[in-house]
Amino acid sequence: MFLRLLSDVRWRAANPRWRRMTCSRRSTSSTAEPHPISLPAQAQVVICGGGIVGTSVAYHLSKLGWKDIVLLEQGRLAAGTTRFCAGIVSTARPVSIELKMADYSNKLYQQLEQETGIKTGYMKTGSISLAQTQDRLISLKRIASSLNVMGIPCEIITPKQAAQLHPLINIHDLVGAMYVPGDALVSSADVSLALATAASRNGVQIHERTSVSHVLVQKGRVTGVETDRGQISCQYFVNCAGQWAYELGLSGEEQVSIPVHACEHFYLLTYPLKEPLASSIPTIVDPDGRIYIRSWQGGILSGGFEKNPKPLFTEGRNQLEIQNLQEDWDHFEPLLSALLRRMPGLEALQIMQLVNCPETFTPDMRCIMGESPTVQGYFVLAGMNSAGISYGGGAGKYLAEWMVNGYPSENVWPLDLKRFGTLQSSRTFLRHRVMEVMPLICDLKVPRWDFQTGRQLRTSPLYDRLDAQGARWMEKHGFERVKYFVPPGKDLLDLDQSKTFYKPDWFDIVGSEVKCCKEAVCVIDMSSFTKFEISSTGDQALESLQYLFSNDLDVPVGHVVHTGMLNEKGGYENDCSIARLNKRSFFMISPTDQQVHCWAWLKNRLPSNSSLAMEDVTWKYTALNLIGPRAVDVLSELSYAPITPEHFPSLFCKEMSVGYANGIRVMSITHTGEPGFMLYIPIEYALHVYNEVMNMGQKYGIRNAGYYALRSLRIEKFFAFWGQDLDAFTTPMECGREFQVKLEKGMEFIGQEALLEQKQNGVYKRFTMFILEDHDTDMDLWPWWGEPIFRNGRYVGKTTSSAYSYTLERHVCLGFVQHFDEKTGEELVVTTDFINQGEYEIDIAGQRFQAKAKLYPFSSLFTHRRRKDEMELSGYQRE
Amino acid sequence: MLAASCCDRRMCVCPGPRRIGYSFRSVKCLTGSWAIPVRSSRLPLLSDAMPAPAHLFPLIRNCEIGRICSTVCYCHRKHLCCFSSHFAHGHFRCAPQRKFAALCRPKENFNQFIHARDYASTPQRFYLTPPQVNSILKANEYSFKVPEFDGKNISSVLGFDSNQLPANAPIEDRRSAATCLQTRGMLLGVFDGHAGCACAQAVSERLFYYIAVSLLPHETLLEIENAVESGRALLPILQWHKHPNDYFSKEASKLYFNSLRTYWQELIDLNSGETTDVKEALINAFKRLDNDISLEAQVGDSNSFLNYLVLRVAFSGATACVAHVDGVDLHVANTGDSRAMLGVQEEDGSWSAINLSYDHNAQNEHEVERVKMEHPKSEEKSLVKQDRLLGLLMPFRAFGDVKFKWSIELQKRVVESGPDQLNDNEYTKFIPPNYHTPPYLTAEPEVIHHKLRPQDKFLVLATDGLWETMHRQDVARIVGEYLTGVHHQQPIAVGGYKVTLGQMHGLLTERRARISSVFEDQNAATHLIRHAVGNNEFGTVDHERLSKMLSLPEELARMYRDDITIIVVQFNSHVVGACQNEEL
To answer: Contacts of residue A327 in chain B, CB cutoff 8 Å?
Structure first.
């Protein structure tokens, strides 16, 4: 039956040439296989995995001119998840990079048949996403807004219009729908085979029935792969092994942690309807019912993402092929109910089969791509979260660009393998987390969502103390961080009920924390920050760091420098603060999720001689942030040391005693622009110092605060943070941070040329702050990020973060403004005048709000509270 | 406590004009709607029960009754109060003339009453939520697993689940479970009290000691007696498996112990030298205990509390159904109308039931025959009336109930010399009609011996509260499916069959309903009670019905169900199979 479904029989007849080349018989006859041609002894690239992802990588690499490529598949091409998947190409994705990948894939598949001559079953049907609730409709509207500015046709329609587009659906419980006419259906296996064919025409060698046992590594570089048919030496290895990617990553001596885990996924196939369903009928996505329904050979194909997924292969049981998974009707029952509720007319439709097809999921519902932080030349593309067809084309392209050019053409940090570390690779963690992730595919995606599983992994020593005081927690890179403190006697909504696109229930709580930061003093536990110490016997540390960082680090001992860690294009790879502890050692503080990325970046670029030592000391220090005008009083009482600005100016670092504890690194930065100090405390003193601070602070009105307060403070000061606002495609020039770049520091540094060029030619995008004017905080939808920005009615960019400013009593959005030529759409230089001379609007779920653009923070509003010389523009937190 | 005895359906012995017993079955809820007691005689009971709550009425009337009803309905006790007072308001207080009418047309009255309640509360109907239902059902549940040694359980019993659901307040059922320590085997029993719980309580505490002692070899008896004599520590005889709510009376322990000691001393004197036969031991123990209960009441006690207690024990009654499991030998001793049933799994996986006891009541022809044989022919007509012994008592065998055992003279003497509470009580003074040749009642059990086979998976001991509502075949199926786990239902495969989406959906919904009811319970007895109380006409648990039944106030609950006590013993088929092979 599957042979019919996949129509690969048909394909084989059409492509005898390719078949000869791969030399592996695809028929299921029992005759003996002809002897396969032997593997090459070496290649530039070995790709492991012949599904949609592997073939797409091979296709794009060969397009980019790399020819010496071998693709290995343990079974047959497109025989795994690719073969079983539902074949829906859907561009309606909430994350911008995923949207771009899906859009590219759609365009690629559309012309693939023409390019290769192989039938891909591509059928532009469109898709209708249904909303049963107003909240769902809001989320659809948000997606529609971002699709429209991308030039992808998309409209919000009424239930009646939906019924006209699809005669079978029951609309009585709908409040609206989103129609994306460009979405398509493909035969996924055929697409994969078409990509393989095109790749093999470009010289890629494809070997089926060859499995990779492990990857050979020498001196941190890939040197080859060991297969069941011999060794291939290679420079690059690409792990596209889908659900086996985790196992394969762990198989070598040098382990590569690829956090993916498979879950069973079910869909239903039926016989044709009495009046066979047209193949061009739109695909229905009913996220509230957790199902999708597409037409399939006159009948329907319907599957979904249940609330209680069944993870499998946790213990790593490997199977060559996955056909022998069982159907589980009882498990499918809720989805079947949802299907019959959506299409009651199908009751009499006869069942053909329930297909059980495992899908691979990642800990954060985004796919995994990029180079291993530990093994150079080891690339990964896996964990498609059941959207392999939608993402496969685009993801393959970005990875190919990454390998060939050294970087992809878009910011793929949200998908980068390095956002994870080994801490996410526990089997138990993965098993539990994917059980949460899979249902999330259909859940409403609201701002400030935190995962509930795999929590309390990394905690500060103060965790219990803070928790007892009403802390509510979120997680970043496995580290528990406080969102805010619920005052005693106050209750917040349950987690499920607290989901909202509007004003959240913690609004006043955070407001009072912010107020305390402005008027008295607050303590925020910020221990999650990544902390490195870099030291050398001679001047190597300074020299190396001067080359790696754009700011001048040759400052007097005790100074703290905010600086970007830039790539060759001048884009931010990291944004950090570096304190010069003494002549030869530096203390570097980076955002929490930089732990793996920054480490790998530095490791690969620092000279590997023994005179230079780098140590990750994240776990050694607890960080307390004392924010507020009275922080100075608290600290001076605890240390009996003069802490006035004369003795302890801004951006300074001193080791001093606090309470009984000695050796506390105190820095006069707060990451918010407010006066105050960061205390880096060796963890055994953490509780003592915290208790002392809280006791002493009592008379100054001290209280605990969380990251939400910090965020509000930071964003109203126009501080960008890495990972949210800043990425590898943003330069200091584009976000008003020229002052953190010392082009004339007398030493060459990475990205210098690009920045010099930008300085001369101007920038093509500009980080801008927007104050929402006619936005009612109580009644209107809150901005989040990713909202389109309109200047004089024309789209100019998207927001990257937003927060409510309790000082301004307005919402503040940060985002990038670009200048597109009105006629050609070409990107033009963005000047200050261009920013200042425009009427701006921010589109929140289709509703536009007037906004005032600003290139510099409201200095006047804050100066009377700020200390002299305070010029601190840095922050590390992301939502 | 004795005042409440006139509510006892088992023994309709009220002073004054004879009340007519009614059949409990007719009171059952039919198809989810409230049915009504067919016999009007129950309604005065309600009015009797009224005065206490009714005086609360003025307090409550001032409040907004609707609000109270809707808020307190989740609380059993408060609910009761508001419920009753409202009842009083509607039919007895304000419209006394309607009370009479109500009695004539009970059904209508009842409906009005229900309606009035609905009206007074908010129009929306209230139910206990599933967690509330569960907390009621699970309040008395108890599970025991036979401990394993070296990873192996060598006992033929895997463990047991027990539970009870009260309808009387306080509950009149008792249960006991214990492991014999000086002999092999395990004892389990359910005891259904009537005319109060005193007798059932005493039997549940004492009977197993009598049985254990009857089973003990001569040497052990001697050893124990010597230990008592010389004040040394006693060998433990029984290891009890008790729910925290199962209590033993501390005050009477000395008295009970002395009676027990007298028994074993007699056994020592009687030393027959033969190995003890379990069947005989059970019969002896039952008879001896009943005899002791009777004697203690006749002798009395200097302590006035104890004196009253032994009298209450003797004047109330209890049935007993006790199982003794030792290896493959299962003995069930039964006195009265509780029942033991063996669950057997057939080769095709289906479940069937084997009765391991005979009910001693009017439905049992042999039993009627036996009673008639024991009394002169002249009494034949008056012996069994309205399916009751002497027209009063439903079980034909029971512990206690000296009213049916002692001569009239003895009864009068004991009552008159007894404490005032007893003397003032109409019930104790009342002599059964046509009482000519006592005793009419015995506690002697019928013992059935069964050799366990591997297909015998479990034993259910339950009081008649269960058997009134469920057929044993259903009990076998429900427990069997529960124990083997229906949630491991055969997976459905479409295969080559023609199945439509609608058909599949119907099938799956039904399967899920079954699973969810199993998943709620960790205890087979709880699961059975859930079915017994909540089953709808399709044999599946109807939450709405369950919730209604459990939210009945105490005085009404008794009309719709009896106390239910269940013990489900699970057998260890491996051990049973091995034992069987050895014997072959």
So the answer is: 491-494
